[in-house]
């Protein structure tokens, strides 16, 4: 099978001591050749490519393919941002097309150093490098009115979230990785309660990912079709999102409205839980439905927190393109731990 890759033109430096950074999701793997930047600056991206995960038999093959394509077979260090939790040698993740074993990858790649980091932990490490001009405001002021913690949350193949907290003058910035995607889904009206009832007939635990992810959008659509006695003609998240934005399918349109509304509710819950002062929506879904999201009930439901509405009105909520930020964050995480050796 011919491998599909998206390539960004690169500037290579012969003096660079590069390392590999990867950001791997259930659908795509983004990989870059990086080198440490100047103090306080983001790592330099020397080469970047994006691959479809389903085109490869495992993650090691993607990395090997990248190193050969960019002529960096000699790179001997790598950091991989990936969804899931590492339990011993195995990564626990239900959204990847293949299992991931740290020891097997080390053997297959012959790397001097290989490390895994949670993908949204890496995204949180990228927050100091996010350009506000590349974001789209959904709610709150254009810029945070108070310095403080930043929440990064992203529905894609799954749902990831992490919190970045700035330095307090005595300790460096900290990142808290979360598994908010696996916390229980909270409906906000009678229609959403009816959907939750349908979901509970299929799953004993209905978490946020069951609705707030690509597969979750399809679940919402199929659930609405069941409730309405309609035929579920669409069979993929992309088809549901497209039909909703074109307005040609009533259940698809309602599913996307519910997706945006419930996402707003969850973001509001997490802001209040963690005391965040800013939020960035990343992941594949927000970028693909950005125009719809801007005119949805996201902001209304985000602010619908009773007496704490005034608190949420002070928090900036913006959409960013996940793209290179996951790689910059993975590189920052790695250099904090491994240095530039």
Secondary-structure map with pairings?
Layout: E1 5-8, E2 19-24, E3 28-35, E4 44-52, H1 59-69, E5 77-82, E6 85-87, E7 90-92, H2 102-109, E8 113-118, H3 119-125, E9 136-139, E10 150-155, E11 159-165, E12 174-178, H4 190-202, H5 214-228, H6 237-246, H7 250-274, E13 278-281, H8 284-288, H9 290-294, H10 298-303, H11 309-312, E14 316-319, H12 325-338
Parallel strand pairs: 2-5, 5-8, 10-13, 13-14
Antiparallel strand pairs: 1-4, 2-3, 3-4, 6-7, 9-14, 10-11, 11-12
Helix pairs in contact: 1-2, 3-12, 4-5, 5-6, 5-7, 6-7
Protein described:
With 341 residues, this protein is an alpha/beta fold. The chain has two domains: 5-125 and 324-338, 2-Layer Sandwich (Nucleotidyltransferase, domain 5); 136-319, Hexokinase, domain 1 (3-Layer(aba) Sandwich). The chain is built from twelve helices and 14 strands. The protein has a six-stranded mixed β-sheet, with helices on both faces. Strands 9-14-13-10-11-12 form a six-stranded mixed β-sheet, with helices on both faces. A hairpin with a 2-residue loop joins β6 (85-87) and β7 (90-92). The longest helix is centred in the C-terminal third of the chain and has 25 residues, at 250-274. The model is unreliable at 1-16 (pLDDT under 50).
